[in-house]
Amino acid sequence: MRAPFQPHAVALLALLALSACGEPVRDDHYTNRAEPVDAPAAAPVNQVRAVRVGELGASFDACGGAGTTRNLDPGQSLSVRAAPFDSAAENGAVPSGTRFFVCNRSIDQKWLGIVFDENGTLAERCGVSSPATRAHDYDGPCRSGWVASAFVRLIAGGEQPPVADPPAALGNNGG
Length: 175
Known about the structure:
By secondary structure, the chain is mainly beta. It has one helix at 7-19, and strands spanning 25-28, 33-36, 52-53, 65-69, 77-81, 90-95, 99-105, 111-116, 136-137, 143-148, 152-155. It starts with 6 loop residues before the first helix and ends in a 20-residue tail after the last strand.
């Protein structure tokens, strides 16, 4: 005996066949678009993502952290990019040992948005070491951009570099 005709099964098979015709896509959350996996990479020239400050609210500093470089040899510099990805244009560099404000991070945690002063210190003139009244793109007197988080060591705001010879312990208990 033959099975009865089932129109919903035919419709399901048609949908499955159509779904196999599409191209695989990669979600690019930085540009909010999807493109075919085998598409050539876009030129980096126009890729820009401003560093945001004040995202933690009016009870916190505009940039909630501070950092310095790590995993760099003396004399090397860390590239600062216009957006949080490798193909973004380089718009500066911070030398090894530079201190900078850490303001935000990319969704994938691989990039940190920083504000830095040319003299390599946590300069108050940058305007991010006090609370901001609202979240906004940084547009102050210092430079800003994105650095790879693998090359950043987060530090306390006023932390000084390690001392080569630590001072002798205070007080001697007769030891």
